[in-house]
Amino acid sequence: MFVDFRTLGENSRIEADLCIIGAGAAGITIAREFFGSGIDVCLLESGGLEIDAGTQALYEGENIGLPYYDLSACRLRYFGGTTNHWNGWCRTLSQIDFEARPHVPHSGWPISRIDLEPFYERTYEILQIGPYAYDERYWQEHRIRPPDISRDLLDIDFWRFSPPTQFNPVYRPEIEASDNVKVFLYANATNIQANSTAAAVNHVEVRSLTGSSGMVVAKIFVLACGGVENPRLLLLSNGVESQGLGNRHSLVGRFFMDHHELEAATLISDRGDQLQEVFGYRTSPESGVLGKPCFSPSREAQLERRILNCTATLQFASSVWKRELWSSWYEEDIPKDYWKKVWRAAKNLDDVPTDAYGYFVHGRAPSSSIKRVFFHIVGEPAPNPDSRVTLSEDRDALGLNRPRLDWRLAGAEKRSIAELLKLIGREFGRLDMGRVKLDDWLMEDASPWPENMRGGSHHMGTTRMADDPKRGVVDASCRIHGIRNLYVAGSSVFPTSGSGVPTLSIVALSLRLAEHLKRQIRV
Q: How many domains does the chain have?
């Protein structure tokens, strides 16, 4: 059921068993788990069912660190959240991503990959990416013979592509029909009000841009607003504890992470056609799901070389007339956001990925069009407490301090990319698949990042998970340390990021949290 909060007037009071703040991938996933349960769920959404400029402007903030996107361009503030414009890239986290690595300070999760495994399988259904198939099952599903790459050096992982599943049109009808899940639209959470000892939350204050106000009283509250807005709201909720809720050890907002993405190195090979057959975009003849292999350093290689996790995906570039691409936006059913991202990443017309273009436009790219083969990199950032979200002096239309982002990288990220590409070069050379030519900036640690380095708009780490409250904001159940009824959902709880787009793991963690909440509410 949907309710327009603006119609409730002044000082309205909403009561529920569970209040979820934020109706994106995490919030909607949790709410869906309570359908027909008899548990009353209140889901607060800042926006409506469509985007509007006034609400979207509430995301605006200040950037003082590495060059970054405007914060209002990174997220969508209406029902469905950023799933409404994501590109569908999906990968699970690896086992090593959960481990405390000696060479990566502040690494280690209080849970393991095994704890998420059953939820990853269910997430595949929610994100519509076919059967839960990785490793050899991927090759069998796509009927490809894998190359004899040394698995002691390199892992071959796989991207799976959601259609992409936009939670607004896909899951809105069933929420609209629900009797026990109410979504309040245009309802901005402005303060989480704790009791006098900050041991529990009494209620959440809510306002609309049109002046309506009220509160939500619930047994349990879940903050699911994203990696910038989650810490922002906790810092703003400073009526009982002046430094903000959950921030007794000054950890809220710290350890902001984003994947750094860029195109790097060139593969010199006369086997481009064969490589594209194996490493290009392919649709499974069984499930119809799009997939693509990628390389990561093995666990052994990461530990031995003291490097971070990162991923390299082969891209096959061609000369494509801009006019042909432009017209294809109107003539074919192509994801518009995908092509906008392609154009941002491309240095010139020769750098348009042919395999992607061929898949979306022609079903397959002609092999004769391959002009250059290079690598798309998604890198893992090292956890850095000085990379953080704080509050700006500027205020939004609700009178709340805007966020200030200071994005920093710790220094090991560049060397990790270089080591990965050297490992790929070693194996490709041994198998006579080609030679990898590293870009000049990879040859020296002191070299600046290239101009095409960019963030992935994956906001992670700002309410990190840890058993020890001196090391993290939430515990292994995603409950804020010291507050018995306040939880956090989403990638802000990630202690480390791995090198995969976080949506898949956000949904898996949300399913795990929902299972825990059911037990808590029934007690």
A: 1
